[in-house]
Design a protein that fits this description.
Blueprint lengths: L10 E3 L11 E3 L4 E4 L2 E11 L2 E10 L6 E8 L6 E9 L8 E8 L5 E7 L8 E4 L9 E8 L2 E6 L2 E6 L11 E8 L4 H4 L8 E11 L11 H5 L1
Parallel strand pairs: 2-5
Antiparallel strand pairs: 1-5, 3-4, 4-5, 4-15, 5-14, 6-11, 6-15, 7-8, 7-14, 8-9, 9-10, 11-12, 12-13
């Protein structure tokens, strides 16, 4: 997906709610834009529902399982914000909570946090370096999900590998991009301080199933094949 045209049959835009008390913004379709070949997810002030800020999230309507997941992202600037690329399925879909995360936390733009949830059990956090800071330029984030192995990559380099079967999700999941903030999770995401509108940008995203041809020259799937 190169984000040239919004395809409502493929993408679902979150709007009109939030994910709980920890989130200080309400999802708004107004802050999801396809602009000049990029996805832009915004964060800005302005009362929305019972929150003081609005933010953007998009998710696939389809579900995916084993394969290579890749996105080229420029994170939003600001302590207390989370620029997230992840897969998720859960009770709202009448399935166990499984998740694979690559999250750039505004308190430290030099790192990306990696994590997995298996049947709602997390605690698998790892940090990987992002050279030059994640909000200064686009960087490539990827993971290869296999039945018995999960590998994470930043700019084409493997930064973490999981081989414990108990720590590898198995449920097919949706692909998400989201930008949100918090007033309460200070230890994790940093002290929130609003300094004006900001945005997370995504230049492309790709899912390559096992055995399929890679889709662009820089793809991790090209290297693996």
């Amino acid at each position: 997906e190169n984000f040239d045209v919004m395809d409502p049959s493929f993408w679902y835009v979150s709007s009109g709610w939030n994910n709980g008390a920890h989130q200080n913004c309400t999802w708004s379709k107004k802050l999801v834009r396809f602009d000049n070949g990029q996805l832009e997810l915004g964060f800005r002030d302005g009362r929305a529902g019972d929150r003081n800020y609005s933010c953007g999230e998009i998710q696939t309507k389809g579900r995916y399982r084993y394969g290579t997941y890749e996105a080229r992202i420029k994170a939003a600037t600001g302590s207390g914000l989370n620029s997230a690329f992840f897969t998720y399925i859960g009770p709202v879909h009448k399935k166990p909570h499984d998740e694979i995360d690559m999250e750039i936390l505004g308190k430290d733009m030099s790192q990306v946090q990696l994590n997995q949830y298996i049947s709602a059990k997390g605690g698998n956090e790892k940090l990987a370096d992002v050279a030059g800071d994640a909000d200064k330029a686009f960087n490539d984030y990827a993971f290869i999900w296999e039945p018995k192995r999960l590998r994470y990559f930043v700019n084409g380099k493997m930064v973490h590998e999981v081989t414990d079967p108990a720590k590898i999700p198995q449920e097919p999941q949706k692909i998400f991009f989201s930008l949100w903030g918090t007033d309460t999770l200070k230890g994790w995401m940093g002290q929130f301080a609003y300094r004006g509108p900001t945005a997370m940008r995504v230049d492309r995203v790709a899912f390559t199933a096992p055995g399929d041809a890679c889709q662009f020259p820089e793809s991790i799937a090209c290297q693996q094949n």
